[in-house]
Amino acid sequence: QQPLLQVEHLKKYFPVSGGMFRKTDQFVKAVDDVSFSVSRGETFGLVGESGCGKSTTGRSLLRLIEPSGGRIVFDGEDITSLSAEQLRRKRRDMQIVFQDPFSSLDPRHTVRQILEEPLRVHGVPAKERQSTINRLIDVVGLTKSHLQRYPHQFSGGQRQRVGIARALALQPKLIVADEPVSALDVSIQSQVVNLLQDLQAEFGLTYIFIAHDLSVVKHICNRVAVMYLGRIVEIADTEELYASPQHPYTKALLSAVPEPDPDVKPERILLQGEVPSPANAPVGCAFHTRCPLAMDICRSKRPELAATGSGHQTACHLFTEPLSKEEAI
Ligand code: SF4
Ligand code: MG
What we know:
Layout: E1 5-15, E2 27-38, E3 43-47, H1 54-61, E4 69-74, E5 77-78, H2 84-90, E6 94-97, H3 111-121, H4 126-139, H5 156-168, E7 174-178, H6 186-203, E8 206-211, H7 214-217, E9 223-228, E10 231-237, H8 238-243, H9 248-255, E11 306-309, E12 312-314, H10 317-320, H11 322-328
Parallel strand pairs: 3-8, 3-9, 6-7, 7-8
Antiparallel strand pairs: 1-2, 1-4, 4-5, 9-10, 10-12, 11-12
Helix pairs in contact: 3-4, 5-6
Family: Belongs to the ABC transporter superfamily.
Keywords: ATP-binding, Nucleotide-binding, Transport
Domain ABC transporter: 5-254
């Protein structure tokens, strides 16, 4: 079966401003040649530290921001070439849940108005809108009495439920969840994750689940892609990624995940230095400035994402350049 979403060589470059009279040919490569595909019903994780390009990837593939290059095939259709009007209709099928329910809901609108808006915009008749709103508020675990209230009258978790209900309003096929629980208390996070999982089962949803660490995605994602400075450095099935991570960056991220059983806890790998600015990404492997295993080749040649096992892809010379591995030993 065809994947629901195919992302090919996606790029989003932002020009670096070059002073008042100077045009610049410098770019921040926020997303730089990102390719992956997502099956129907799957939850695909995008993980990396802030600034790695995961949110920009999520927004670019919905064309909420315009990609600088690459191709996005959604549900059998190349959406990179759609006109604004065609895209607007397609948006029914692809929705986003934002990280911050405090700022993503209009404070002047009641929950009813918030949920009604996408329905109205997409021409759902008034009568149908009311029954849809009643059903939406119910499936996210709120009640009809909540419909008259304003966002500030809710807790963070409740607000995120409203954000999820809004994303569900048009019965999408794909939801990009951009750090949907990062702004919530830990005690509330699992409730919202459970809700997302229940809704996925009920409505056959496909998720792209964006997170800044690997602890949240473990229980919700089927597969995970790890991003660093605008590129995917590793993709694998979640179990495989946790059991046998390959990329040194993934290993470092994983070593920071709290693990209740000390016997299986890998030794904490502390990375040296800060994430370099994406405006000034290192040449070669962008991770070489922090990688404990960096070799000579890493400073000049960029490793491509390549198959390194069943369903496993890694962008690291240790796995794709067997010669340089020997050199390293
Ligand atoms: Fe480290 Fe080199 Fe692999 Fe990059 S390519 S992660 S620098 S070993
Ligand atoms: Mg973000």
